[in-house]
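Quick review question:
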């Protein structure tokens, strides 16, 4: 398990190689990379700024990553989340889950992303071309997706 919150960009290929190097217990690796869209609500955006509380954010991400390991038989996982000011097309987040079997890896990655989109302690502000900023709230669809994990909590025995 690993969590990093950073300003620097990440290299998807390098991260997956580092996570899986010399591992023969992994049969499936699922990755999700989130990027900054160039529009929000049909209007162009110039940038997105992400803020967090250092220390608290990493601890909370570690907690939810540990929860994913309790729910699914994961061999490894990684969450990398960027902070600072990002431009359209920039990477924001990387989630990698690795398991002996694909179903666990897919479900755990989805669980982690649903949490990151709704409850992770990040504050996002989109700024348009004129310099006007708007704070971003979780969308109702993201909240609905995250809620299913409260009801449908698989166990490692259910493979």
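Suggested answer, residue by residue:
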């Amino acid at each position: 398990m690993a969590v990093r919150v950073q300003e620097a960009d990440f290299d998807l290929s390098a991260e997956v190689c580092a996570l899986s190097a010399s591992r023969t217990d992994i049969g499936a690796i699922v990755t999700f990379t989130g990027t900054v869209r160039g529009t929000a609500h049909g209007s162009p955006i110039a940038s997105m700024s992400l803020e967090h509380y250092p220390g608290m954010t990493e601890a909370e991400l570690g907690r939810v990553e540990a929860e994913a390991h309790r729910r699914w038989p994961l061999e490894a996982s990684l969450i990398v989340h960027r902070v600072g000011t990002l431009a359209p097309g920039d990477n924001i987040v990387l989630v990698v889950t690795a398991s002996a079997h694909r179903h666990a890896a897919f479900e755990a990655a989805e669980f982690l992303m649903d949490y990151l989109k709704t409850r992770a302690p990040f504050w996002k502000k989109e700024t348009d071309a004129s310099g006007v900023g708007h704070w971003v709230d979780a969308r109702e669809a993201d909240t609905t997706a995250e809620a299913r994990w409260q009801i449908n909590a698989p166990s490692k025995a259910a493979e």
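Why it works: The domain at 3-151 is CATH 3.90.1170.40 (Aldehyde Oxidoreductase; domain 3). The longest strand covers residues 43-52.
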